[in-house]
Amino acid sequence: MPISPLATRPPSLNLIDEFSNMLVNEQKFHAEMSYVDDYRQFSYDMRSRLLGWIVEVLSYVDASEQTLFLAAAIFDRFFRLGGCHKALWALLAGTSIFIASKYYQISAVRVRLITEALHNTYTRQDVYDMEMAVLGRLDFNISLVTAWDFAVFFLSRLPSLSQDGETVIRSMTSYLLELALVDRMHFDMRPSSLAASCIALAVHHHLYTIGADAPLRDQAVTDLERAVSARHCFLVDGMRSLYRLHDGRSPADPVPKKYASDAYHNVSKAQLRCPTRY
Fold it and tell me: Ranges for the Cyclin-like domain (predicted)?
């Protein structure tokens, strides 16, 4: 049997406790996708546009992935807990950016930048008022575990590859996660399953590009399943769904446009291979 680069050591008790706590948080706070269907005027397409706008704004200020995914989680959870008037959708998106950046960034995204990005449709006070409305509905609990949090945890469980390999896999994982974030697929999978599937496809792609043979790629996915305690059927189905999402992308969309740069190894331009052997 080939030796996979993803063979891992047994997790420590601390890691097991950390993962268990993340799963509890996921179970408690993950916004079910069905909430979109509860509002006639709201749609998956409209959510995709608003989340795409969040991606663009946070890319402009070079915010972390943690900030992006928390902003999306705040947006979804606010909607799930009571909806939002159509006139306030864009304000909610901007306010979600503001709250998430205050939580994770050393310097929060300036309110002035948010209002300008919203074409000055809303005032600074509107953002502050919406902030209190969001925090009130969420009971000031914004410690929401996201797919990115699981991805960081899973990636830390994998042994070191080459520096270039780690960088490419991380960039590809981030790209696939963001593709799913602005798509309906984000609601079809729990954050933990989505993160595992993104890493699996990123690893599969990297091993293929460096010339690894099929048995080694297969073994790497098997080792990843063991490392993240993922069920085989969910992992493979997720990989195939992500492949279709990537294959149907438009280069002009916010996420592919963001990742079509040297800073991210041009991963959105990659020719992914559909996982068919599993």
Answer: 52-136, 153-230
